[in-house]
Request: fold
Amino acid sequence: MAVYLITGIAGFIGSSLARELLHRGEQVRGVDNFSTGKRENLAQVLEQIDFREADLLDLDAMKRACAGVDYVLHQAAIPSVPKSVLDPIGSNMANVDGTLNLLVAARDAKVKRVIYAASSSVYGDTPTLPKHERMIPDPISPYAVAKLASERYMISFYRCYGLETAALRYFNIFGPRQDPSSPYSGVLAKFITQMLAGQQPTIFGDGEQSRDFTYVDNAVEANLLACKAPARQVAGKVFNVATGRRVTLNEAFKFLQQLTSYSGSPVYEAERGGDIKHSLADIFSAEQHLGYKPKVNFEDGLRQTVAWYRSQGKAPCAY
Ligand code: UD2
Reply:
């Protein structure tokens, strides 16, 4: 049994990781400051985990959290492009300063490996598709810059201190427990809850932008594989975590109409600042080095997600 520390454990990806690790009989410790995470995401597992309410910016708390830990799964972040455009300093503090603190604590505690929740946003609007890890990043939003800086810190800590790190570039992860209630929430969580409530969703732009929407179970699997893969294949490296297929917002909306029985149309508004047009991943490297294969495709993931929100009677975003 290994000890895992999950940062951002009350978030939707962090809490999904916790559930899977507990299912596999592992020991789970978690930190969250509830800036975006939700206590309700931990309700079913709270008794089985060592939870500490703490902020990544509190170095002493991070040192205590890392003591005796084998693997760190660093999910904590303010995960939003538009929020970073509004508040770049806040985004940098949480997403970069917080990561650096955690790395120092992990290094000093001699943890075996740190896996980082990086982002597809680092590629920016490069016309080349699919995006592969050897491409030169060209981040647009402050969020994307912060994610890239933290990725580079991961690599730096491997090179300078020998701390094994790997960065997983998540491509638009979605699934149960993703918070739909903020204007910065992921588009699918917003659309599903709005459409289930009979409310008209808003599409920013013409709806022809595309994303490699990735069901959360695939991201969970990638993290656990990245912990166990041989160091020479993962340490100091970056991997796309996605499905290798892209879907436009218009297509996603149409499929959601079937799943939610929403018969209205979307309203189209101006494109969002900092957005990128198309996103599609080449997942060869993760397949080759981590043994990763997407287990759940877009349609099945969306069916499961809609079923979960329906069962929860989740309130949609008010924006
Ligand atoms: C970025 C990253 C993603 C992850 C995420 C963190 C890219 C390609 N992806 O997601 O990997 O790091 O940030 O939050 O950079 N939209 C609407 N209506 C809405 C909400 C959104 O049309 O009500 C549009 C939005 O303008 C964008 C698309 O939906 O074109 C996806 O937006 P998002 O906020 O779900 O995710 P995105 O792509 O910024």
About this structure: The longest strand covers residues 113-119.
